[in-house]
Amino acid sequence: MTMKGGQRKNLLYTNNILCILLLQWLDLSLVKSAKVPAIIVFGDSSVDAGNNNFISTVARSNFQPYGRDFLGGKPTGRFSNGRIATDFISEAFGIKPYIPAYLDPSFNISQFATGVSFASAATGYDNATSDVLSVIPLWKQLEYYKEYQKKLGAYLGEKKAKETITKALYIISLGTNDFLENYYTIPGRASQYTPSEYQNFLAGIAQNFIHKLYDLGAKKISLGGLPPMGCLPLERTTNFAGGNDCVSNYNNIALEFNGKLNKLTTKLKKDLPGIRLVFSNPYDVLLGVVKKPGQYGFQVASMACCATGMFEMGYACSRASLFSCMDASRYVFWDSFHPTEKTNGIVANYLVKNALAQFLH
């Protein structure tokens, strides 16, 4: 039987459509099969979802006005009026709208299986930094993670747990406290190290930590950089000589350290077979928001929403909450050290697009 030209065209057209649909299905199924099943977080207050609520420290935020814009207006221990960057990242990856704190007894392994934070506000790479306010050091966060692996194995079964561990995205975000809370505030490290030597010391700890994570099965890792530390309201408030502008010295330190962390990621990708390591740098996007707040819908960048907006954080925000701003979305910073939920969302969106999107494929 011979086929007419029109019939041949229709058949070709139909075949092409079927091929396109098949390719789309295959592409979607590949993305689905390679999807990140969980996000596991290590770090400081930038990513602490409330672990410090359950240890003996003054570095807490589980009280009003913190969390007033969180789901149900609940102060969870996040150092913001609402969600933090890792919550937005989890949502962007299609997992869940927020990542719970490991030490919070109101959550269990079924919730932790898709995402958990071991982070502790006021900690750093340096153990001496965590000692300042008696918070959870980075090595202890790793011990909690090992405990978590055992719980995950019992909950999911060893095979599924191992798959989750391998495909999970690990986010590391800390370092600011090592400089602002420790090196430049407390005598000790500054007498032992020059700023450059201290950066190398911290980068060495970061390298060892990533090696240990890798040995425990982690493959997809995001190493976070420092924000423009000199633009935090606390630093601007005390910069009398500079007319309350950003402190350039602190910003330069952040830039230098970020450069070393970026080089470290390049090195480790060569040293560790199969690792997918990225450097997630919040510096430029946050500096852009601070320098031109109006372009992002903000009205205030030099002062924070909480209390007078100049130097308060933690309990100082609670005591002076009557003075807090009415609408945090107008402010870049929530307290003198931490961004508002809106800023966290902007930073998270930038990091997903510019560093983390590759983990979706």
Automatic annotation (TrEMBL):
Keywords: Hydrolase, Signal. Its EC number is 3.1.1.3. One of its GO terms (molecular function) is triacylglycerol lipase activity. Belongs to the 'GDSL' lipolytic enzyme family. PANTHER family: GDSL ESTERASE/LIPASE EXL3 (PTHR45642), GDSL-LIKE LIPASE_ACYLHYDROLASE (PTHR45642:SF24). It comes from the Eukaryota. Residues 1-33 form the signal peptide. This is GDSL-like lipase/acylhydrolase. The keyword Transmembrane does not apply. The keyword Transcription does not apply. It is an enzyme of class 3 (hydrolase). CDD domains: SGNH_plant_lipase_like (cd01837). It comes from Medicago truncatula (Barrel medic). InterPro entries: GDSL, GDSL_lipolytic_enzyme, SGNH_hydro_sf, SGNH_plant_lipase-like. Pfam families: Lipase_GDSL. Gene3D superfamilies: SGNH hydrolase (3.40.50.1110).
